[in-house]
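Interim report, section 4.2 (structural modelling).
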Amino acid sequence: MSDFAVDIDYLRKQYRGGVEALAGVSLQVPYGCIFGLIGPNGAGKSTLVKSLLSILRPSQCSGTMLGEPIGKKSVLAKVGYLPEHASFPDYLSGRQVLEYSAGLANSAKSSYRSRADQLLEQVGMTAFASRPIRTYSKGMKQRIGLAQALVNDPVVVFLDEPTDGVDPEGRMDFKRMIVAMRDEGRTVFVNSHLLAEVEQVADRVAILAKGKIVIHGTVADLTRREARYELKIEGTLPTLLVEWCEQKGMEVSENRIRLSADSALAVQTLIDKLRASLMTICELKEEKFSLEDLFMQVVNQARAEAAAAVQGKGSTR
Amino acid sequence: MIQAYTILLDSLRMLRASKLFWVSIWISVLVALVYASIGFTDTGMSAGFGLWEIPMPLLRKGTQEAEVFYLLMFTDVIARFWLGWFSLVLALISTSSIFPQFLQTGSIEIALSKPVSRARLFLLKYLGGLLFVALQTALFCLVAFIAIGLRLKEWNLTIFWAVPVITFSFSMVYCVGVLIGVSTRSTVFSLLGALMFWALTLVAQWTEDFMYKVAYLMPEVGMGVDLQSGQIAEADNNAGSGMKKAYEAIKPFVAVLPKTRECTVGLKRLVHFKERNSMLTGIDIGSVLMGGNTDPVIRKAMEKYEMRHSWFSIIGTSLLFEALILSWALWIFSRRDY
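Predicted structure of the assembly:
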């Protein structure tokens, strides 16, 4: 039995026409965490989730989900899903959407009824539960969509762009609900291109670009590993010290010195050097890379590599 | 079981939400009430629950002709034209959107992400579409059953054969609509395709019917048709021989098509008058009004004409066609990425 809720050894999807949406993805999602899959439009995020849920047929796939081979239908009874642009039949009411979703997931009527009430309460839709879906706003539909994803009491929940079309207040509610899901012990897999939101809630993230996972890890590790430090000194640096800093790869501008480092240890040498030269340090601050900075960096790098590969192919012909 | 119940309940909800479903049901009830309002008096027929009296000595109260006429009204007129035609067109209009709507982005994903196989999902959704016709026909038959029971004092359960027969007849056309709906995801294409296919099968069946009559039925009763002038004359020894060859040539082409018309026409083979020990084959409503087919040669030829295709071949070839079309649609539905 795998230690991961989702454990993909290899996943490849090539659409008819030759477009390769996923070029051999390997990914592990531990139980009980919020996992954010981020990437630019067309990176293959939805394709990856749909492959796991049998909504589309991967070209090649090996791995497990909840300990069962990916593609096994019975495991989907323990999975919840909110698709991007979720659409429900407009003749159903919000409560009936939950009933429909629970029924398809094979949940007994007795078990889902009380759960449905609880979920409607959680997503703030109790008062509107009997109204037809056609009278709902986009945000209300998303709330019902979220409730239906949870109606079968799933172990793992996939949310594809959950806050798409939701107002700022609604987004706050969604973030709170996602965290609550994790606190209940569920694994939450969030697909999004809204990096700031993912950064706020996710424990782990992976960046998907050009059909490949280019980087993954905990949010803390990924943002820390690109940490930068900035020191501000009084007066100007002596020429010898400027040269020493530049040799060590630091940036020096007037009274500021910037350096990239994995940890604060690397800064200590600089501090010692400055203090030995009787310089006064006014300020020392850690500048963390945001997920957005990291995202832009790795995505641009992936694009450049892809372009180079295409060029390489062209020149060998 | 829960999944099947859920999908069928959803289909029922979808139908209930459709205005056309209610329009269709109300027209059906109205037609059934018009049928129920027909009665027989000492002088002839009455309509509108006795509001209008039509003197017809042949169809007086208590005569066997009146009783046969009443039952033939159901099998030859109402089942054939209302249930077999108009209500089916309304049903096609109402149900042609089921699959295209179901396959909409954002909707299909939710169903497919559940622990239900695609084949099961597809077939249950298909059965849901058939519910439309089954419910409407069942309601109609119930009114007709009560009307026939009260009028003829015979509670004839064979009337309810109309439910599976009409539903089956609809299913042959509906499966084509489903195939087109699944392939194109378009309600308009699905509806137009189904209607065009239905028209094609009807033309084929009418042609076969006409050719049989000219080639076999008419010579058997001593009549022939001059195909150049279109005149009916007495049959000579070679009557219908050319047409027989033509009939035999087109027969295989018609045989592979589903038999929508023959199903509804053949309904009267299943509706029996138990107490009167008579089947309605060999008799049509026109001949009843003319005083019945007294000539045994004509009646025998008519009986042969009506029975020229066995139930086995009508149902068998239609089922085979439907199974092929549904398998094709299911294959597309199952193989596609959503």
